[in-house]
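Homework help board

Subject: predicted structure for assignment chain

Our instructor gave us this sequence and asked us to write out the predicted structure in C-alpha cell form, then describe one feature. I got the C-alpha cells but I'm not sure how to describe them. Can anyone check?
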Amino acid sequence: MSKSFHTTKAVVTGSSSGIGRAIAIALAKAGVEQVLVHYRANESGAVETADALREVGCEPVLLAADLASPEGRRTLVASAFQSLGEVHTWVNNAGADVLTGSSAGMDFEEKLRHLLDVDVTGTILLSRNVADRLMNQFEQTSCSLPASMVFIGWDQALEGMEGDAGQMFGPVKAAVMAFANSLAQASGPRLRVNTIAPGWIRTSWGESTSDYWNDRARGQSLMGRWGSVDDIAKAVIYAADPANTFLTAQTILLNGGFNRRF
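My C-alpha cell output:
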C-alpha cells in the first residue's frame, strides 16, 4: 500500500456493511488515520465497521444521516468537516437497496423513485457541497495534494441490461457517472474525481441467487468468477491514492473483463 495515505482522513458513505465497509477497512489498512463511517439506519453494522477499523489502528467516527433529505445531507457535511478537520478522501458509496429487505416488495415505480431520491438527487446535491469544501480546502490550507472523490457506478449502465433491474439501475447509475465526469471537469486541479464501475459483485443479493445468476456472473467475466467487495475496495484505493495526482475524470470498469463470448 502507498505510504501517501498515512495521516490522511476519509469519509465513506454507506459504510455499515458490504462494499462500503470493505472500502473503509481498506483505507484504514492503507494508513488513513480517521474514517467517518456513515450509515442511515444500520447502527449495529456501523459499530461492527468501527470495531474493524480500530483493530488496524484507525480511529472511526460514526454518523447517521439520511442522504435523501436536505437535513441529512447538511448534517453529514457539517459533521464530517467538523469532526475530521481536513478531508482527503471522500467515497460516495451509499445507495438505496431495493433488491433485499422490505424494499424488495416495492413495485417498479416505487423502487425507481427511491433510487432517484437517494442515488441520484441525494448523491449529486451532497457531492456539490462537499466538492466546494474540498476545493476551498486545497486553496486555503496547507494541503499540497488535491483531495479525491470517488463514485460507485455500474459497468452495464451505458450498454444496458434486460429486465427491471437494468431499467432501474441503468439510468440511475448512468446519471451518477455522468455527474462525476462533469464534476471532474469543473474541479481540476483542485480536486480529483473518478468512478469505479463494478460488474457482477457478490454482495448480500449475490449470496442468495439462483444457479442462473451464478452462471451468468461467472460466465460474463473473463476471470470466470464473481467480483468481491474487496476487489472494489482495491480499485478505490488506487483511484483515491493521494500520490495518484494525474488520475481524474476516469471511469474504471471493474468486472474482471466483460466476456463478449458469453
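Reply (TA_rk): Your C-alpha cells look well-formed. For the description, you could write something like this. The CA atoms of residues 49 and 83 lie 18 Å apart. That's the kind of observation they're looking for.
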